[in-house]
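Record Amino acid ABC transporter permease, 303 aa.
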Amino acid sequence: MSSVLYDTPGPRAKVRNLAYTAVFVVLLALAGWWVLSAMGEKNQLEADKWTPFVTDGQIWTTYLIPGLLQTLQAAFLAMLIGLPLGALLGIARLSDHAFVRIPVGAVVEFFRAIPVLILMVFASALFVQSGVDSEIRPLYACVTGLVLYNASVIAEIVRAGVLSLPRGQAEAARALGLRKGQTMTHILLPQAVTVMLPALVSQLVVILKDTALAGALLGFAELMTSIRQISANYSNVIPTLFVVALIYVLLNFALTMFASWLERRLRRAKKGKGGTLPEQRAGEPAGGPAEKDVAGAADAPTS
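=>
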């Protein structure tokens, strides 16, 4: 089916697309065969390297589950702080007052331009100088870096989502006498949420994955840190990497499914609030009371 961005392929294009697909499948199969062959040469496919994840519960209770809980804790705190902070920064960037818009824009651009790992390291050094307990310092540094960076990105997502709405929405709100804050909270943001949701979910996935950066330099005992501990005790680096990667995939998949459910729920709620027009009687103007008043005023005799 043709569209603005896509033309229905003809006979030659279909053959060419099938050929490209076949070549891609062959290359993918060769890459998979090469990976399995390399793993076999390193004895990483032997059963004794994979069965501990099924038979030895100590791997889960000592390494994987505690690391997973630390990852979820850091990600949850970063989301809990970063989402409202990013929304406030995004709304502030839309302010009509230059003394609010310009400084907030500078802050957002500054933290958005710095790699999140540098923010974590800087926060850790700051907490060392402040005398924060060494046991909770890695968690604080991880959350601080994630909040500063991702709140700045979320601010841009919020700003772009609000600006993507038709200008008539804000104009209609002003015509009704709503203030700028009321227009933002009651008219623009509820509509922009469904527009922003895919980008917000992508950023939440980034937050979850970036917790692994804190384990590399800060000693944060998150999920990736357990890989070194498990491989040192069981000599199964590749199986451990595979299992940890699968855990990340399941976490991100669950987050995506939740976001999809939330988006469907918001869309159904929006349709429910919209309602339907009342049935039109013969001889009556279409629409609600406002349209009827306008029609009656137009038909009234003029003096």
